[in-house]
Amino acid sequence: MADGERISRLREAVCRANLDLVDKGLVIDTFGNVSGIDRELGLIAIKPSGVGYDSLTPQAMVVLDLEGNKVDGDLNPSSDTKTHVRLYREFPEIGGVVHTHSRSATAWAQAKRPLPCLGTTHADYFRGDVPVTRPMTEAEVVSDYERNTGLVIVETIRTLDLSPVEVSAALVANHGPFVWSDDPMRAVEVARVLEFLAGVNLSARMLNPAEPAPDRFLIDKHFLRKHGAQAYYGQK
Amino acid sequence: MADGERISRLREAVCRANLDLVDKGLVIDTFGNVSGIDRELGLIAIKPSGVGYDSLTPQAMVVLDLEGNKVDGDLNPSSDTKTHVRLYREFPEIGGVVHTHSRSATAWAQAKRPLPCLGTTHADYFRGDVPVTRPMTEAEVVSDYERNTGLVIVETIRTLDLSPVEVSAALVANHGPFVWSDDPMRAVEVARVLEFLAGVNLSARMLNPAEPAPDRFLIDKHFLRKHGAQAYYGQK
Amino acid sequence: MADGERISRLREAVCRANLDLVDKGLVIDTFGNVSGIDRELGLIAIKPSGVGYDSLTPQAMVVLDLEGNKVDGDLNPSSDTKTHVRLYREFPEIGGVVHTHSRSATAWAQAKRPLPCLGTTHADYFRGDVPVTRPMTEAEVVSDYERNTGLVIVETIRTLDLSPVEVSAALVANHGPFVWSDDPMRAVEVARVLEFLAGVNLSARMLNPAEPAPDRFLIDKHFLRKHGAQAYYGQK
Amino acid sequence: MADGERISRLREAVCRANLDLVDKGLVIDTFGNVSGIDRELGLIAIKPSGVGYDSLTPQAMVVLDLEGNKVDGDLNPSSDTKTHVRLYREFPEIGGVVHTHSRSATAWAQAKRPLPCLGTTHADYFRGDVPVTRPMTEAEVVSDYERNTGLVIVETIRTLDLSPVEVSAALVANHGPFVWSDDPMRAVEVARVLEFLAGVNLSARMLNPAEPAPDRFLIDKHFLRKHGAQAYYGQK
């Protein structure tokens, strides 16, 4: 496939995933963005900044290289672009990134609490708690804020010795969730499940604040039922 | 009626009930499944595993015998199939089984709390609390997990000396609700009421955590107004 | 107008109000019913028992006299009919009655807490707290339960020395709200506001459990801005 | 542009913003109103009182001068008109005012708690907490209530030494939110974000009641990313 055609496909996939974000109720106004990467070309496509979802087209997507330089597109990229770029650079396994301010996940981020794994629905998607970052320092906020947001996410995943494939999201303290996956559409699906879990877990915590996590073997059972070589969910 | 026609009807009923599960908002993604049984034939139809609801057809339903062997169908059955089979074997009165990860019922399951009977809406459907199972052991999870999930549901109902007709649901700890009834469509209706009650009861608990259950005679009045020989609700 | 035409109009108004109850999201399944009265004829029309809202027509409404005897209609009236009849007999000012199991109002009823007047939206509709009944006795439940439900509502309003025009609803303990007004459609509107307030007040209580009621003069100001001789809201 | 045409445009903008309020789910029944001002003409247009949103047309909007005298229109203006007028007089920077009884913001108003700034979504719109007014005195309520409501909002903003451009909303104690902005449509957008934040912050508080506000530099970073000379969000 020619490069031009690959770029067109990437634009289309990213545009469709951004629209899917709206269909799934994860966005109010323009609070949210999806990007995708073509690893072979080393090019990223991302939503333009502050543009309404009503008028999104594949052509409006902005194309950047892994240095964050704009390669193609008339509009400014999402103001969160440097965070996305950072995640693609540090996590070579991933192909799509989503950022939302979805209601319940944002509540956990604002409470500066990790989203605990309390059940099998969570374990079907994340092999353990979804972590929350430390608050960012004044230096990190004042200068190159969006790049530093990416770095603090990476720091969080690494410090906790997590695999970005097994725990494919983080809550940025006082901000909201960043989620990643194999491709942009799948990342939106994971973002939606994260939002669902954030709502369910809030209710569960209110019913039983002292409840410890489920046993590790139950979490592993469900994660591995859907992921990896021994998976037996679905039609594979 | 010929066996082939009976199987077609069962497939149709189960397919329709699975789609109804989505219409009633009890499912996100592919988290949920409905099955039904033809007791005369001893055959069960169930949703295929990991197939989107958009593309469900009666023909996609998988038909199994009461040993869990596939009798007809091209796809893999739901990964929860052995749980359904177990319930049909142990509760001969039932004709349909539903499993969901619906939001509020899942919260109670994750909190490892039975859903208390707090009022007449609950008593119209369930003659008492909807129980929660004990957590499963490592041995139960690692080997033949789905069958053991069915066994722990049955154990819960039996240990509490409940009638599976009067209390037609259980919350699997850290997982979510299983619900059963006379037929697949009715089981979906009961699952929807369970979800409604789980939401209402969460609010009621927050308003008055100390509130004891209503009097037993009020629960019996409402359950028997709708069920059994003395029922006088509806147009019978 | 001839009596036959008056009855047709009453049937139509009651049917429309029952359908409006569904449109406003106050009903799941068949949990809810609306009635209306023609005071001149002394006749009540009410929803039939256990009939789906999809198939409701004016002709399906059941017509009764103030003794509760069926005067016209093929179907059984709502199982809650005697409660409605009791309210029409005891509160001669009212023209429509609604019963729902709406989510938040039912939570307050199950918590056996009156719905407190916490603000001006409440005071626009109810001049003070919406009371909760005492639990019913075994004798009241076992025999003539629905009539006794009406009596305990009336007892609650009278014991608290409330005007049924100023406080036009009550929560039946462990059950749900009954709401009344000038006519069936207006009663549905009040039931919807009650449900809205029940949700808002739950949140307010969680934010500030100790918060006392607003000043009496603020409640009176808002109630009287919309009701009575000095009202100045709207286009009158 | 001729004055008549300017007035037509104002009516249209205000009508459209009122309808947008409904589309965004911020209104039940007729609880809510939007106004706008043409500063050059010194004329305000506002929703008529108690008129259903279904039948709103630009021509139904009521036009008033800054003394609150009706200049044009057949209907009575919103009963909250004097509050709007007061805000336009005291805050010369603003061009649109919205009042709602939206669910979560009303809960905070009833709890008499300011809406705390807990994160970046809040800081994108408001540079700090959204304040709550003191309760109004009996004298303020009994006489010229709506004008006094405006005065107590202004008092709240001034006493806390806030800029009405940086904190463009207040919660009236026991009542609900008033929100303002450059023009009517933008004020509706801010009202919607306020409602979103009120819901998120309620959840955050329940998860972590002790959580202090984010650092001031993070709030400033986000507010100034979207507002003022250094803004870099969007396509400017």
CATH class designation of chain A: Alpha Beta
Shape of chain A: globular
Specify the CATH homologous superfamily of chain A.
Answer: Class II aldolase/adducin N-terminal domain
Order of helices and strands of chain A: HEEEEHEHHHHEEHH
What CATH calls the topology of chain A is: L-fuculose-1-phosphate Aldolase
Strand content of chain A: 5-15%
- Tally of alpha and pi helices of chain A: 8
User: Biggest sheet of chain A: strands side by side, in what order?
Assistant: 4-3-2-1-5-7-6
The tally of structural domains of chain A comes to: 1
Q: Considering DSSP H and I runs of 4 or more, what fraction of the residues of chain A is helical? A: 40-55%
Report the mean per-residue pLDDT of chain A as an integer: 94
Q: How many individual β-strands of chain A?
A: 7
Distance between the termini of chain A: 27 Å
Q: Could you say which structural class the secondary elements and strand pairing of chain A correspond to?
A: alpha+beta
Largest interface comes to:
A-B, 29 and 34 residues
- Poorly predicted runs of 5 or more residues of chain A: none
What does the oligomeric state look like here? homotetramer
Largest sheet of chain A: 7 strands, antiparallel
Essential attributes:
homotetramer, 236 residues, alpha+beta, L-fuculose-1-phosphate Aldolase, seven-stranded antiparallel beta sheet, 7 strands
What does this structure look like?
Four copies of one chain form a homotetramer. The first copy, chain A, has 236 residues and is α+β, with helices and mostly antiparallel strands. Chain A has a single domain (3-224), classed as Class II aldolase/adducin N-terminal domain (L-fuculose-1-phosphate Aldolase). Chain A is built from eight helices and seven strands. Chain A has helices at residues 3-23, 81-90, 103-110, 120-125, 138-142, 145-159, 184-207, 216-226; strands at 32-38, 43-46, 62-65, 70-72, 96-100, 169-172, 176-181. In chain A, strands 4-3-2-1-5-7-6 form a seven-stranded antiparallel β-sheet, sandwiched between helices. In chain A, helix 1 runs parallel beside helix 7, helix 2 packs parallel to helix 6 (145-159) and helix 3 (103-110) packs across helix 7. Chain A starts with a helix and ends in a 10-residue tail after the last helix. The mean pLDDT of chain A is 94.
